[in-house]
Every structure is written in structure tokens, then in C-alpha cells.
Amino acid sequence: MQNSITLWINQEKHQISGRDIFKPLSSYLREDCQLTGTKVVCGEGDCGACSVLMKDECSEQYMAINSCIAYLYGLHNKQIVTVEHLSLNPDIQKLQKNFVNCGASQCGYCTPGIICTLADLYQKKTSPKSKHIKNALTGNLCRCTGYESILEAATKTKFKQPLRLETVSHDLEKESLDVVDNQYHFHAPQSWREAIELKKNHPELKIVANLTDLGVVLNKLKVSHYHILSLQNIETTQHLFEHEGNLVITPAATIHDVEEYCENIYPEVSELLRIFASPQIKNRATIIGNVANGSPIGDTIPFLLMAKTQVKLISSQGERIIALEDFYIDYKKFNLRPDELIKCLLIPLETLNELSKGHFRLYKVSKRKDLDISAVTLAMSLALKNNQFQQAHLCVGGVGPVVMNFIFDSNDISEKNFGKQLIKEISDKTLEKIAPMSDHRGSAKYRNKLVENLIKKFFYDEKFVQEVL
Ligand SMILES: Cc1cc2nc3c(=O)[nH]c(=O)nc-3n(C[C@H](O)[C@H](O)[C@H](O)COP(=O)(O)OP(=O)(O)OC[C@H]3O[C@@H](n4cnc5c(N)ncnc54)[C@H](O)[C@@H]3O)c2cc1C
Ligand code: FES
Ligand code: FES
């Protein structure tokens, strides 16, 4: 049992114990390491000023993350690079010179975060196009320069080889972690056996994944979790993998992992995940964290429901598998006993393949396209028989206490031919079953209208009708 965490910052080993592991990385960098190039503005993952690079044992490259919501206890065995270290790299100096020459930095408060985020991109693309840069920078705000000159400096910077950032070769520290400081107590066991024993003896333990939800709660609501269990130290060689006909999503699998996995085989899914948060968030946010957070506007849930995902739960009494639909009981109420943990999600590959070959769409509507919370999310698929309507499956978020799951077949819908009447019947049936709330993201009336319009859009996008009716 180890009572400290180890991480590497700019190649230097840091062994941290006691109360310090309960701080955000940004505070540790600025206050303990005097690495003040990393800035903090919003403290909730929204502005990118605190961006740094992180590499874990499963990834070959560094990834940009938000250090303000990355708590140190979640960074055991990780390598971190900050802007101070990056600026020693001749390729990055070229990028920095272009920032100066293009007038891409005024007060300069956002610039270190932007340089870190672009360094992530230049590892993958030697001459990124404007669309790649815009996508990479969705999580970085600049309040004074204006984005045109930032875009110009970044597009001007071209390399012959992908950017290579040094890594430290080190043996992973494979012991379980148990760090105590007064009322604070953190556990990160190495095995499921230890994890379920801990949860059995301490059902009050707060489970943390990668803290993109919880980090905001800790920073903004000043809620303190004193007794914490992380499953991120349980040995996995792969974040997600195919096994016995399922895609297995482990607690380590991030939104970025799934986006990358789906890129070529299930483009509809990766398209949706492109507008999930920002790259910095997606590099940390786990799928299981999104599911367990249980928000009715959790962006992965409509798709996971449609794909007939199952949840594998584990406790000292053994394992049980339930349909994701049955995991949700009511708003933030789950079919999960106090002694249970989510071990993994199982997505049947057969369903994924059927969806990708058939009529299937995913939609997210928010006030702005990038880095925004959904007003409504909708997954829809349609089955035909002899070119006539047979079944419609809809999973809709933002219209009730949980993401709603409806199937209408030919007994529910009288019209079988594609046209205005069929769309109206499906839409009316759906609207009967939903009860959206009014809040600052939209009124109930607006959300109902969105659902109606997205159903119409589905028929238009799938080319069942020539125009949006
Ligand atoms: C700036 C920003 C933008 C965001 N944008 C989006 C967005 O576009 N769409 C969206 O859906 N979400 C968004 N989110 C929310 C968040 O990123 C996701 O919900 C994310 O998937 C949570 O994963 P995590 O690993 O960070 O979980 P954490 O924050 O660590 O945990 C989330 C919840 O899951 C529970 N939990 C985690 N693992 C387990 C387990 N194995 N067993 C039982 N319970 C568990 C935790 O107790 C906690 O209640 C955003 C967040 C931020 C800060
Ligand atoms: S300070 Fe704004 S994202 Fe971290
Ligand atoms: S240069 Fe001032 S915030 Fe970007």
C-alpha cells in the first residue's frame, strides 16, 4: 500500500502525499512549483487558460487537459508538460514567433493555454487546416485579441514531422493507494477485489472517475468529498476493447477514446462526440462518468440506449448485468446499491453494426455549437418492411427526469407510407410521452418544438422526404 501519488512534471518526478493530493493540478503548478505560465480564469473547464499536456500509460502522445479540474489524486503515474517546458522546444518557438508576428496575443492571459492545446494538435497534424485548428481550440477563449489572428498564426505554422515531445521512461507504480490526511481519505486500489471490499465496508465512499463533472462541483459549489474511491488505478491495458460480441467500455474509457474508435466505423457517433464539450474535456471525461452522472442531457446516453447498452455492476455479492434503460429510475436515482460499482458497459457490436447500416441519426441542439450544454438530444432509428414503416425507436434527452426511450411499431402508428402523415403520427406520439421543463436553456414549448422538428429533420436527412415539411 502506497501513501503518496507519483507524477512527472516537465520530466521531473514529484511524490506527493497528505493534504496536497486533494488540490487541483493548476494550484499545485502555480503555488508549489511556481510554474505560473499556467493560468486560471473560470475554474470550471470552460476557458482553457489552465490547459497543460498530460500523457498516461495507455497513450502514445500527450493530450491537452484542463488543469483547474484535474485533481492531483487523479493523476497518479501521469506525465505532465506545462508551457514553460514546451517553450524550450524549437518547433514550439516557431509557433510562438508566429503568434508575435501575427499579433495573436494582447494581454497574453489565454496564450499559454492556446500554445499547449495547439501542441496537442501538432503531434497529430504537421500542417493543420483552419477547420482542425478551430476544432482543437473550441475549449480556449480569448477575450481581447480576436480569433482571426490566432487562426492565422496557427495556420502559418507548419512542420515537416509531427511534433515529438519527450517522455520519461519509468516503471509504473503498481501498488494500491491509500492516502490519509485528517478527515481526508483517498483510496485507489489496484484490483476489483479490493475496490468492492472497500465499498462494502464504506458504502458512503464517493466514487470519482476523471472529475470533469465532480471537479466543477468541488471548485464552484465548494462541496468537499472527504472519503474518495477511484477506480482509475485498476490495471487495464486498454480503455476499451471488443470481447465476446460486445464493445467493452472500462471506467478508464474517455469520450476521446470512443470518438477515435468510432471515427471510421460509426461516423454518426464520432460526429456527435465532435460537439461534446472541448478536446481538453473529452481527453479526460469518461463514458461511465457520463452515464453515472445520470443527467437527462448527458450527451452519450441517447446513443447508448439506442445501442442496447448493458451495465455490468459489481459488488462483494458478485456481478449483475442490467439494461442501461433499467439503470435509470428517476432524476439522478439509479438501480445501484450502496455497495455496488459500475464495472463496465457492454455495447453489443451486432446492434452497432445494424444501426450503422440502417436508418439512424443522432442530434444535439444547444444555444451554440461548441462547448455548450444540450437543450435537447435525440437518437432516432427506423426499421422498414417492404419499403413501408415498421418501427421507430427514439431516445430523447432534455425532456424529462431521465433520457426517455420509446419504441413505436406498426400497431401504434396507422400510416405506413412515408410522408407528412407518418411524421405527424410519430411526432404526436412522442410529444404525448414527454414533459420538458422550462429553464434558462429553453422553455418547455421550445423543447417540444425542437423534438418535433428533429423528427422531421430525421426523415429529411434519411431522404424519405424531399423537403422539411
Ligand atoms: C466544460 C465542460 C463541458 C462539458 N460538456 C459536456 C457535454 O457537451 N456533454 C455532456 O454530456 N457532458 C458534458 N460535461 C460533463 C462531463 O464532462 C461528463 O459528464 C463526463 O463524461 C463525466 O465523466 P468524468 O470521468 O469526468 O466523471 P466524474 O466527474 O469523475 O464523475 C461523474 C459521476 O459519476 C460517478 N461515477 C464515476 N464512475 C463511477 C463508477 N464506476 N461507478 C459508479 N459511479 C461512478 C461519480 O460518483 C460522479 O457522480 C461537461 C463538463 C465540463 C466541465
Ligand atoms: S481555468 Fe478555465 S478551463 Fe481551467
Ligand atoms: S490575448 Fe488577452 S485573453 Fe487572449
Produce the secondary structure layout.
Layout: E1 4-9, E2 12-17, H1 25-32, E3 51-55, E4 63-66, E5 79-81, H2 83-86, H3 90-101, H4 111-124, H5 130-136, H6 147-156, E6 177-181, E7 184-188, H7 192-201, E8 206-208, H8 214-220, E9 227-230, E10 240-243, E11 246-249, H9 255-265, H10 267-274, H11 279-282, H12 287-293, H13 301-306, E12 310-315, E13 318-323, H14 324-327, E14 328-330, E15 333-334, E16 341-348, H15 349-357, E17 359-366, E18 374-385, E19 388-397, E20 404-409, H16 420-433, H17 444-461
Parallel strand pairs: 1-5, 7-9, 8-9
Antiparallel strand pairs: 1-2, 3-4, 3-5, 6-7, 10-11, 11-16, 12-13, 12-16, 14-15, 17-18, 18-19, 19-20
Helix pairs in contact: 3-6, 9-10, 16-17
The structure holds flavin-adenine dinucleotide and FE2/S2 (inorganic) cluster (FES) (2 copies).
- Can you identify the CATH class of the largest domain? Alpha Beta
Give the percentage of residues in beta strands.
Answer: 15-25%
Low-confidence parts lasting 5 or more residues at pLDDT below 50?
A: none
- Spatial order of the strands forming the largest sheet: 2-1-5-3-4
CATH superfamily of the largest domain: Beta-grasp domain
Number of domains: 4
Cα shape: globular
Distance between the termini: 64 Å
Which secondary-structure class do the elements indicate? alpha+beta
> What CATH architecture label of the largest domain applies?
Roll
Task: Give me the number of helical elements.
Answer: 17
Tell me the Rg in angstroms: 23 Å
> pLDDT average, as an integer?
96
CATH topology call of the largest domain: Ubiquitin-like (UB roll)
